[in-house]
Write a structure and sequence with these properties.
Blueprint (H helix, E strand, L loop, with lengths): L6 E3 L9 H16 L9 H16 L9 E8 L2 E9 L1 H27 L3 H17 L6 H19 L6 H32 L4 H7 L8 H18 L9 H7 L2 H26 L4 H26 L7 H22 L8 H26 L13 H4 L1 H15 L5 H16 L3 H25 L16 H19 L2 H4 L8
Helix pairs in contact: 1-2, 1-4, 2-3, 2-4, 3-4, 3-10, 3-13, 3-18, 4-5, 5-6, 5-10, 6-8, 6-9, 7-10, 8-10, 9-10, 9-12, 10-12, 10-13, 11-12, 11-17, 12-13, 12-16, 12-17, 13-15, 13-16, 13-18, 15-16, 15-17, 15-18, 16-17
């Protein structure tokens, strides 16, 4: 009788491969402990420590740029069969987005923690969430994927509700918590069904075994796939699972809202890409049409709700950006849906669009944080005549809004939208491309109206008081604006991911 080859987990750990999320987590613990000993007047050092840690984590991506490293692998007869952690090009790009987004959030948060938020708790929670978000794109089994998702999400609940004594902050944290817990429960149920049907948690092995599921387990496998997708749809704020977004963004501290709009969204979309394209390709005929419909509903609902904000007397800049982020989520879903219909690599279009969106949306939030210092209510009307008070901030916000709208001189925004549009056309989803085109036109109205307001004559010149811009906020605006200009001048840097194979 021939002995059956057994699989075993290789115990050696490639520390360089896992260094970016590991370093971020270690710095989080260092900041938490240091908070006990640092005197109140020097708490700002904790913020700079967090920024230094995130910068070092970003630097550790450089030696991994080849994208050919893995660790925590299963072996059979000395042959690697599957790995739980893989640092491929897809992983590195998303980690760059996540850690870069956390770094810019940290810059925006330096003033907030000094004036309004408890420093030690804030930096620990932000770094912990960033560590989970950086781990998630490298996860190649469902257990690691769910753990990374929760490590990224759980600290975010506390971040949203960290404004002590603020009723809106507490309400926003509760809504965010309840929706995320529901999503997690649904995801775990789906994962358990998939494991029961396939007998494995590794994504590549699931893809192989789903093709050969016994008849009596077929219904269980289908239910597992559907529930897993529903759980991640919650995390991406896709319609109809988007109801928590506006109130959460408005109630959260501004830097946290910026973080959720970029890093939180990246976490959801990364998980969705991994489970659909890597683990469930054999069910593309199920998740493809479902995601296409979700994309159409999400972009339409987000843009229509943003338009409704214009009819209110004091429409909020943060609420408008919240609905804008819902609409942008719809655009990000398009290439994932297209991947079900086309053999060409469509996921790169989502990655390219996510890079553009992360840069310009964080930049917009940086300018909003600046205006909020003199106008705490942060109504759109407060931006009237911003050019007269701060020309540089006005030009920067105009540039970011035009990128989000997909208009020149925001070339990277235009190219990213064209790339997403092309992915739908190439996959034969002409109807979805038409809906996307209509929604882009709808979005032009509120983006251009906000942009025009920046350069109008202020109603009361005395109300527009020049104020000193904090250095961290200035740095965040400069970095995002510079990145947007570079990407607009050299869009191939982001758009090449539309054609490169990421897996």
């Amino acid at each position: 009788m021939t002995p059956v080859a057994s699989e075993s987990l290789v115990q050696s750990v490639d520390w360089l491969t896992i260094a970016p999320p590991t370093l971020t987590a270690v710095v989080a613990l260092v900041v938490l402990v240091a908070d006990l000993f640092v005197p109140e007047g020097r708490k700002r050092l904790l913020g700079w420590t967090a920024i230094g840690g995130l910068t070092a984590a970003l630097a550790l991506l450089v030696p991994l740029r080849a994208g050919d490293r893995s660790t925590f692998c299963l072996t059979a007869d000395t042959q690697v069969t599957a790995c739980s952690y893989t640092a491929d090009h897809f992983t590195l790009v998303i980690q760059l987005l996540v850690l870069g987004g956390a770094l810019l959030t940290a810059l925006l948060s330096l003033t907030e923690t000094r004036e309004k938020l408890p420093a030690g708790e804030f930096w620990f929670l932000l770094l912990s969430s960033a560590a989970g978000a950086a781990l998630l794109p490298a996860s190649r089994d469902l257990a690691t994927l769910v753990v990374a998702l929760e490590v990224a999400s759980l600290p975010a609940f506390a971040l949203v509700g960290l404004k002590r004594g603020d009723r809106m902050s507490g309400e926003a944290a509760l809504k965010f918590f309840l929706s995320s817990v529901t999503a997690t429960a649904v995801t775990l149920l789906g994962v358990s069904f998939v494991y029961a049907a396939t007998g494995t948690l590794h994504l590549t092995e699931i893809a192989q075994r789903l093709d050969d599921v016994p008849g009596q387990l077929q219904t269980l496998a289908e239910a597992g796939v559907a529930l897993t997708l529903v759980g991640f749809a919650f995390k991406t704020a896709a319609v109809p699972f988007h109801f928590w977004v506006p109130d959460t963004y408005v109630g959260a501290p501004l830097p946290v809202a910026a973080y959720l709009s970029v890093v939180g969204k990246a976490v959801g979309f990364t998980g969705l890409i991994l489970v659909t394209v890597v683990a469930f390709p054999s069910y593309a005929d199920v998740w493809g049409p479902a995601l296409a419909v979700l994309a159409a509903l999400t972009m339409t609902a987000g843009n229509v709700a943003a338009l409704r904000q214009l009819s209110t007397r004091a429409w909020s800049a943060v609420r408008l950006l919240a609905w804008s982020s819902v609409a942008q989520a719809g655009y990000l879903l398009v290439p994932i849906a297209a991947a079900a219909y086309s053999s060409d690599d469509q996921i790169g279009a989502t990655v390219a669009y996510a890079l553009m969106y992360a840069v310009v949306n964080l930049g917009a939030f940086a300018v909003v944080a600046l205006v909020a210092r003199s106008h705490p209510r942060n109504r759109i009307e407060d931006y009237r005549g911003l050019y007269a008070a701060s020309p540089a901030a006005a030009f920067a916000l105009a540039f970011f809004l035009l990128n989000l709208a997909g208009l020149p001189p925001g070339i990277i925004g235009l190219f990213a939208k064209v790339t997403v549009f092309s992915s739908a056309v190439d996959a034969g989803l002409g109807w979805l491309a038409v809906i996307m085109g209509i929604n882009v036109v709808i979005a032009l109205y509120y983006y251009l109206r906000w942009t025009a307001l920046l350069f109008r004559t202020p109603e009361g010149a005395a109300e527009k008081v020049r104020h000193r811009t904090p250095v961290p906020i200035t740095l965040a605006i400069v970095l995002t604006a510079a990145a947007g200009v570079v990407l607009s001048g050299y869009p191939q840097f982001a758009l090449r991911f539309a054609t490169d194979s990421l897996f």
